[in-house]
Amino acid sequence: MDCTTALLPRLHANYLLCPSRHSSSLLSKTHFSSPLKLLLQTKQLSFASSQKITPVFCNATLSDARSETVELANIDWDNLGFAFLPTDYMYNMKCSQGEGFSNGELQRFGNIELSPSAGVLNYGQGLFEGLKAYRKEDGNILLFRPEENALRMRLGAERMCMPSPTVEQFVDAVKATVLANKRWIPPAGKGSLYIRPLLMGSGAVLGLAPAPEYTFLIYVSPVGNYFKEGVAPIHLIIEHDLHRATPGGTGGVKTIGNYAAVLKAQSAAKEQGYSDVLYLDCVHKKYLEEVSSCNIFVVKGKVISTPEIKGTILPGITRKSIIDVARSQGFQVEERLVTVDELLDADEVFCTGTAVVVSPVGSITYRGERVLYNKGGVGAVSQQLYSVLTRLQMGLVKDNMNWTVELS
């Protein structure tokens, strides 16, 4: 294997870590269509350090990668919350309207430059995804269903008049970014590496129209539990005046504007001591839709019901996975319209999402009336499904679903 070692006294925040084939003394931008054709192996990299850094570049594919001892970042792994921490590298790829993406690159994590007239800033032409990487006990890394995120982004891009990476480009870019930030992946059982792919209209546009240029970007951050309660009951309030999505809108795709719309109700709820908000449909105002950033499930006996995907609800990947897991565990799962009355009469309620995984609901408040589930504790169904899914995600059991992708 032909490897080039370059000694750098310091790396600029946006310096591209891709060695030129034509230069042995300097590093310069090098584009590559498949991120894993240039596997970056680094040790003891420091984003904010002035110490010397010795990156090793190897012209290798993923199959050539070997397990190695990686010194973890110096952070308190036992007290990770769900907050952003800057890591070492991000991934960047651009294309023009009407063309396909190609020639992506890894670069040092840092600020990006956008025109004030960028489509994403002026008209909200942007999508994002979220997925996680877990470290196994043997040091290998597991991704959970990254191709599903790629497919969902492609569907969202079509709705938002944007080009998008192919499934292969998306998955390869995720793998490359995770491996480049390997030291930021928490030890087994201490959390996960949250992966945030972004697709945005970065080109300048004044009139209302699709942007002329697009940027696909991936950054990562180590995280712990999304809710401060951890794997403990959360408390929701039903919002009946404000709505997250409308029929014919963009509620069914992961566009950035969907999430800004929930901030007002969510902030008010948290000020009152609730964990989050559950939204109703905007037409009848009696059918459940979803929580601010996760899907909702209602348990009655051996039947688990969840709102059907009909254009106003995000097709969550964890939602889809939990449905399959629940059926494999002997539950009957129904995707249909679910009323508030059914919710208030349920034996158990829980939420699902990439960030929360499975989060049991301890209480629901609706028009001043508070209903407790399992005396405010964790329900047996929530605990069972959480355990089955997280053990699979972390590589603690055999993956009979073929959902995980393992990296060395």
Automatic annotation (TrEMBL):
Pfam families: Aminotran_4. It catalyses: L-valine + 2-oxoglutarate = 3-methyl-2-oxobutanoate + L-glutamate; L-leucine + 2-oxoglutarate = 4-methyl-2-oxopentanoate + L-glutamate; L-isoleucine + 2-oxoglutarate = (S)-3-methyl-2-oxopentanoate + L-glutamate. Its cofactor is pyridoxal 5'-phosphate. GO terms for biological process: amino acid biosynthetic process; branched-chain amino acid biosynthetic process. GO terms for cellular component: chloroplast. The modification N6-(pyridoxal phosphate)lysine is found at residue 254. Pathway: Amino-acid biosynthesis; L-leucine biosynthesis; L-leucine from 3-methyl-2-oxobutanoate: step 4/4; Amino-acid biosynthesis; L-isoleucine biosynthesis; L-isoleucine from 2-oxobutanoate: step 4/4; Amino-acid biosynthesis; L-valine biosynthesis; L-valine from pyruvate: step 4/4. InterPro entries: Aminotrans_IV, Aminotrans_IV_CS, Aminotransferase-like, B_amino_transII, BCAT-like_C, BCAT-like_N, BCAT_family. One of its GO terms (molecular function) is branched-chain-amino-acid transaminase activity. Keywords: Amino-acid biosynthesis, Aminotransferase, Branched-chain amino acid biosynthesis, Pyridoxal phosphate, Transferase, Transit peptide. PROSITE patterns: AA_TRANSFER_CLASS_4. Its EC number is 2.6.1.42. Belongs to the class-IV pyridoxal-phosphate-dependent aminotransferase family. This is Branched-chain-amino-acid aminotransferase. It comes from Cannabis sativa.
